[in-house]
Design a protein that fits this description.
Rossmann fold, 2 domains, alpha/beta, about 55% helix, elongated, about 210 residues
Length: about 210
């Protein structure tokens, strides 16, 4: 297998698992290529640059490309990455590190060995409970009231993304019919935020349905 996804758990646990793999493969530090988000997403141009570097011959037996926060890959970037996953350089291994696989294309998932480290613990139980209480109130409010809350939640793209991720975690723990419906709305919002849609519009539509 040449492509791997490390998901779930905390960021620290995912990084620990990646380091373990690098040690198992005896990778020279000069043969590691890492792609991290640019502000709030990972676009197609950076993926093309990443895969181009990955095609270069390594100093050792293998080279490894690591994509951090892979849930922030835009759909165009994922399609560009897919070409490399389908026909990878023989010397290359690719690792996607992501909090959730829900925003990754099924074709990406089918070409990777997925390792889940369990439910993410990015947010505390108290934060989850506070989010659920706020969500329950917001979805029953008039649009004008919701708009005021959106101004606070989506004051920045990063803040909007954290709010969405906290909600996905909280609703996964609740696991009821209403939660499933809300998760669908939040996952759609996560994709839109990664695609640079206006944060306030995304959160407004997410709450109002």
């Amino acid at each position: 297998m040449h492509a791997f996804i490390i998901t779930g758990g905390s960021r620290e646990k995912r990084r620990e698992r990646i380091i373990r793999k690098l040690n198992e493969w005896k990778i020279n530090q000069f043969d590691i290529r890492e792609l991290t988000p640019d502000e709030s997403s990972i676009g197609i141009a950076r993926v093309r640059q990443f895969t181009s570097h990955l095609s270069l011959a390594p100093s050792g037996a293998l080279s490894v490309g690591i994509i951090s926060d892979a849930e922030l890959l835009t759909q165009e970037a994922q399609n560009a990455l897919l070409k490399t996953l389908e026909e990878p350089p023989g010397h290359a291994r690719i690792i996607l590190e992501t909090q959730t696989i829900d925003t990754l294309l099924p074709t990406i998932l089918s070409r990777c060995l997925v390792t889940s480290l369990g439910v993410s613990d990015t947010f505390s139980r108290a934060e989850h409970e506070a989010w659920l209480a706020a969500w329950s109130t917001l979805v029953s409010q008039r649009p004008g009231v919701v708009l005021g809350a959106v101004e606070v939640i989506a004051a920045s793209r990063g803040g909007a993304q954290r709010w969405v991720i906290c909600g996905i975690e909280a609703l996964h723990r609740a696991l009821d019919t209403q939660s499933a419906q809300a998760i669908g709305r939040l996952l759609k919002a996560q994709v839109q935020l990664a695609a640079n849609v206006t944060p306030k519009l995304v959160i407004d539509l997410c709450i109002l349905g």
